[in-house]
User: What shape does this take?
Amino acid sequence: MTYLDKDDIAFINQRTVAEHGGNFMPPHNFLHEENLDYLVEAV
Assistant: This one.
C-alpha cells in the first residue's frame, strides 16, 4: 500500500485549485500546516 506524503498532498491541492478555481499561495497553501503534519505522522 502506498501512502501520500506531505508533498503529494500539496501537489493535489495545487492541481485542484488550478482546475476548479481559487487562490493557491505557494509553497503549500495550508492554513494550519501542523494539522497535516500530525495526520501524515499518524498514518
In short: The longest helix spans residues 6-20. The helical segments are 6-20, 33-42. The mean pLDDT is 90. The two ends are 12 Å apart (CA to CA).
